[in-house]
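Hi V.,

You were right to ask for the full record rather than a summary. Here it is.
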Amino acid sequence: MAHSKLKTSAGFTLIELMIVVAIIGILAAIAIPNFMAYQAKARQTEAKTNLGAISTSAIAYFAANNTYAAPTFVALGYAVSGTNRYYLWWQVDSIAGASSGCTNNAVAPTGDAAPAAGATGFTSSARGNVDTDDTCDDLIINDLRIIANPSNDLTN
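Predicted structure:
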């Protein structure tokens, strides 16, 4: 009795492979911009967290000294852990960040976002670049713990 085997083909055709590559390309085209937007939001949230910690340090400094006018971050009792992506400002003192692309990154914000501290209040600032353009992202916090974003790099 003869036993016959059917010949089966193994592998993919070129058309099937091209369709899979096209689908992966479409998914990547959708996913990469969304990933970049989430990454930029995370960087901005990191700056807001740092400003909140500065505010907590300033309130503790005020409780001990009856003024917010600490001359430096060291005197304020604040230090950044890890890699900071924003420049942080307290009066004339700053903590450098690793942010790039922002043309005036290391220059303290001016106007309403200018860092200042006195006997009864303070404003601390953060400046960085959360994406690949030249626009700076400026964030400020005051003694009432109100965070403002006068120059939002995420909307530009």
